[in-house]
Design goal:
This protein is mainly α and 306 residues long. The protein has one domain (2-45, 58-304). Helix content is 60%, strand content 0%. It is built from ten helices and no strands. Helix 5 packs antiparallel against helix 6. The longest helix has 27 residues, at 107-133. The protein is globular, with a radius of gyration of 21 Å. The two termini are 31 Å apart.
Length: 306
Amino acid sequence: MLSLMYFCFVIVMLNHRPEYGRYLLGYLDDRLNAPILKGHHTYDDNCEITMENFLDNFDHYYAVHLGDWFLSSFVMRDYYLLHMWSIMDEIIELSWQHILPHFRECWWDHIIHDILLSNTPAIMFGMFIIKKLGLTTYDFWHRYDENGNTKPFLQWGVWHCHRKFGIMCYMFLFLKTHFLMGFFINNNFLIPPVHPFPVLRLLLWFALGALAFRESYDDSRTWNTVGRYYKQVSGRYRWLGIAILSTECIMCYKYRKNTGHIQEDAVTPLYISVPWAITIGSMVAYWTYLRFKKGHSTKYPVEEVR
C-alpha cells in the first residue's frame, strides 16, 4: 500500500511542471524549494591526508552509509553480492561525478571511509544478525555437486544458466539505477541533505526491495532438468519496483534543469563511456550465448535446489 502511495506521488510530480512541482513541495514543507547552500558540497576540495580532513568526513553521509548497508544485508542476504555491490557503488560515483559533482571524493574517502570503515562493517554485522536470527540467506551464485559441495568458481551456476545470469544483470541495473535516483531526486526537488524524505524513501525501498529480491531468488531456482517450472513465482513486486523506478528516472530527467548542482550539459568522457559500453555489451552477449547455446533449456535438478 505504501509503495503504491509513493508511486502515485511520483506520477503526480511527473505530471507537474518542474517549477510548480518544487513550489508544491515548498508549500507542504517550508524547508523545501529553497537554494541549498550547504551539504551538497564536493568532497575533493582538499585531499591532503590529515586527521582533520579524515575526521571531517565522518558526517551524516557516513551514518547513512552504515544504515544503508546494514539494511541492505537484510534485503540481499548474500556476502558475494553485497561486497560486489559495495564496490560498484563507488565505481558508479566515479562514473557520474562529472554530471553530479557531489559524487566527487578523495581516493582515500572512497576506499577507507566508504568501503572499509562503513560498507564492510555494516554488511558483516547485518549478516551476523541474520544468522543469529536464523533467517534464510540467499545464494545467487553457486552450483553444487552430488555431495552438496560447492563447485569451483568457473563452474558456479551463475556462469552456466542464462536465467541466473539474467537475474544478476537485472539486479545490477535495478540497484545501480535506484542508487543514482536517490541522489538525483534530492537535487531535483531541492531537498537538503539532512531531511526526512531521503530516509523515508530508503525505508520504503528496503521493504519493497526485500520482497522483490525474494522473488528473484526463488525465480532463479525454479527450473528442473527438462526446463519446466516446478514452482510458479509471482513477479508482482518486481514489476511494481520497475514501474516506480522507471517513473523516477523520467521524473528526474524532466526536473534536471535549474537545480544548481546537476551539470546537465556535461559531456561524458570516453574513458567512462567506452568501458561501460564494453561491459554492458559483454553482459548482453554472454546472456545471449547462454540462452541460445545447445542444451540451454537443461537446468538444475530439483534435488540441487537449496
